[in-house]
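Its record is retained below.
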Amino acid sequence: MSAAVLAGASSLMTEQPSNELRSNELPSRRVSQQRLVGRLMEMARIGATVSGGVDRAALSAEDAAAQALMAQWGASLGLRATRDAAGNFFLRWEAGAGAPLVSGSHLDSQPTGGRYDGVFGVIAALEAVQAMQETGLAPRRPVEIVAWMNEEGSRFAPGMMGAAVYGGARALADILPVRDQAGISVEAALASTAAALPGIATRPLGGTPYAYVEAHIEQGPELERAHCPIGIVSGIQGKHTFRVTVRGEAAHAGTSTRAERRDALLAATAMVQALARVLHDEADVTKFTVGRFDVTPSAPSVVASQVIFSVDLRHPDSQELRRLSALVAPACEAAAGPCEVEVSRLSAADSLAFPAAMRARLRAAADRLGLAHRDLLSAAGHDARYLHPICPSAMLFVPSRDGVTHNEAEFTEPADLYAGACVLADVLAELAMSTGQP
């Protein structure tokens, strides 16, 4: 949708609540599709893959370079860059007083990720702030753009580490010892990233924002199928994650007998099949995934001595999710055979619903701009999960082509990115200027 159409639609407002802006104050008029997409493409060069995607692991050199680029863009707008002890990155517009209004998402990606997952929310928030400045708005409170540390969880498990620590759901001390597959700890990676960004000051950990709004690609096909540019996220389905460690004994592949073997790989595969049976859901509402499988010593002629695998379990009904989670450890133990098994729960996030008032703000902004919208539940996890308990929070989605995500082929039409940024800009402006509750 063109800027002219959006600007025209925004001028058709009728009666407004007292905390809404006048049509000539709406920053959506100043949102630039060219600038938004240009920044996304420039960011995509950091960690670019040969197939057109992005590999930008959390707390990597590429992640630091992405933060440095955001700091550069922020400085041109008078925004101050800081990082906290958990590696969360902030750009602050020092305006007004009181608790800050926060918006953003994440800059890290999957190893073969796309150009839009996470980063759209960060750059759309930057575009919203620039549009507010160009409109001449003077916010009544500080506005912060955030890039949360390790949302994806592809390098360090579990994901959403930075937001979880910021929101108080996890302690910093709990994440520092976590190691990646190369044996590098979060603590060491944090130190390396800080050394690569010497000009960025450190800020205190945590806080209580006035409100939080996150824009994101849908990571599903619903909006595209409905020819709908805006999704109003009603909530996020629950997600429980586990690490399963199976311990056996290494043995010679040619000389050890079946009776002698304690084959960790055979036991682990039996456990995965047992989990698939006990967690089976004919209606296909339950989502059960084993996405990582690490075998030791991983040699062709050696019986595996250890296997570590992940379990990702999701369901929109929290009570049912808890019931299913309770089946994970018994199923693994029953299939262990001669091996030993340890099941560790990494995270247990139940389903949530975002506040009705925050969702209503997004709907109203989309209506003013003449943009079709629909409510939908997020099947994927997002950092907003950990902001929800500490401040009024909301999310908006824009379509993903064919529902493809966590994939180098990930794509969202520029017009849809622009529409989402326009809605975000107007809602952030409304919240930044509001004198009452979000």
In short: The two ends are 28 Å apart (CA to CA). Confidence is low (pLDDT under 50) at residues 1-18. Residues 414-433 form the longest helix (20 residues).
